TrEMBL record:
One MF annotation (Gene Ontology) recorded for this entry: DNA binding
UniProt keyword terms in alphabetical order: DNA-binding, Phosphoprotein, Transcription, Transcription regulation
SUPFAM superfamilies recorded: C-terminal effector domain of the bipartite response regulators, CheY-like
Name under which the protein is recorded: Response regulator transcription factor
Keyword Phosphoprotein part of the UniProt annotation: yes
Domain HTH luxR-type: 135-200
Residues with PTM 4-aspartylphosphate: D40
A Pfam short name: GerE
Domain Response regulatory: 1-105
GO biological process terms held by the UniProt record: phosphorelay signal transduction system; regulation of DNA-templated transcription
Length: 211
């Protein structure tokens, strides 16, 4: 209730509905057609991670921001690999929650800074993970220009920042990102970033992937 009241106070946000159980999410989304879903991890019957994966498998899926009181590596990575566009802790200041919704609605990823650091550290330390070969094989399908854009997405750059770095218009960057999602069969920018980090050598976070 407190979260709904806080979000309703933002002029450009409208709370269209609530669900108390992960199993209710599909029906609620079909009926209410929200742009963004705030998903709690701990819910009865079906938890938020399973609900996120089911929801993001829909062809017309809204963006998802996962909110929780705990940020274990397993929960963070499972949420992001399921297609969540953001991961926030419940103690995140209200203004940051509103900002996260706006960013994720616009296709930009948003995570609590401490969660982002832990995710990058975890991926950097898991060099023996068999996902690395798969990630490199997928990135090898890309053109050099697409790999450059993917590498910058992996660093957390916005479309505007990528455009400045590569001397491209924002519209061109958006087109690149759309092609990346299609060619890599991914749901959002966060999953592009995870794929890029999966492909890196241990300890090499922040460097462009080789392919």
């Amino acid at each position: 209730m407190g979260l709904s009241m806080m979000l309703s106070a933002a002029d450009d946000l409208e709370v269209v509905g609530e669900a108390s159980d992960g199993s209710e999410v599909d029906a609620a989304v079909r009926g209410l057609r929200p742009d963004v879903v705030l998903m709690d991890i701990r819910m009865p019957t079906m938890d938020g991670l399973a609900a996120t994966a089911r929801l993001r498998a829909r062809p017309d899926a809204p963006q998802v921001v996962v909110m929780t009181t705990f940020d274990t590596d397993d929960h963070v990575l499972r949420a992001l690999r399921a297609g969540a566009g953001g991961f926030l802790l419940k103690h995140t200041p209200p203004a940051e929650i509103v900002r996260a919704i706006r960013l994720v609605a616009a296709g930009e990823p948003m995570m609590t800074p401490s969660v982002l650091r832990r995710m990058m550290d975890f991926v950097a330390e898991s060099g023996a993970d068999p996902r690395r070969d798969r990630a490199r094989a997928l990135l090898a399908r890309l053109t050099p220009g697409e790999r450059e854009v993917a590498a910058l997405v992996g660093r957390g750059a916005t479309n505007a920042e990528i455009g400045r770095e590569l001397s491209l218009s924002v519209a061109t960057v958006k087109a690149y990102v759309s092609r990346l999602l299609t060619k890599l069969d991914l749901n959002n920018r966060v999953q592009i970033a995870l794929l890029v980090h999966d492909a890196e050598e241990p300890g090499a976070a922040g460097t462009p992937p080789s392919a």
